[in-house]
Specification:
With about 170 residues, this protein is an alpha/beta fold. About 50% of the residues lie in helices and about 15% in strands. Its main location: cytoplasm. This is Endoribonuclease YbeY.
Length: about 170
Amino acid sequence: MAELEFEIEEPDTGTDPEADALVRESFAAVDTAVLTRLVEHAFNRMRVSQSTYLSIAIVNEREMERIHLEWMDLPGPTDVMSFPMDELTPGTDTEPATGMLGDIVLCPPVAARQGAEAGHSTLDELCLLTVHGILHCLGYDHGTAAEEAEMFGIQRSILEEFLGRPAPVETRR
């Protein structure tokens, strides 16, 4: 089993009942059992040892906006942020990568909106974002068309194998 740690913040609600309902529903869609199995699958697929450590923080929009501004100097909340630790790369069949992969930060309300826009569930979007974060921690990026094709191809393949159906549509920002 992967060395996985979840940290889940309380939903950030206010005075708008409709917005508050979306926030509560988005946090309720976080299924740590599914995400744990997905991480284990992605680790196997990318030849990362199950003893590799990964932290996943589930945060509200206010906290994600703070992190986004602090680390990327970009305003507003985003869907996922990744913080690699040991600069791991995918391993091989005989030598899986091991160490501290890093931290992934997910924002369920942003994921819920993106999933709805793309026509899939919040959990599907959280699965997509989790794999996306893992790949970033492994050194993949999507800054160029070639990098995006490689990263999104691997991401789609991992998700389709895990879900047993077509992968959710990627958000391109």
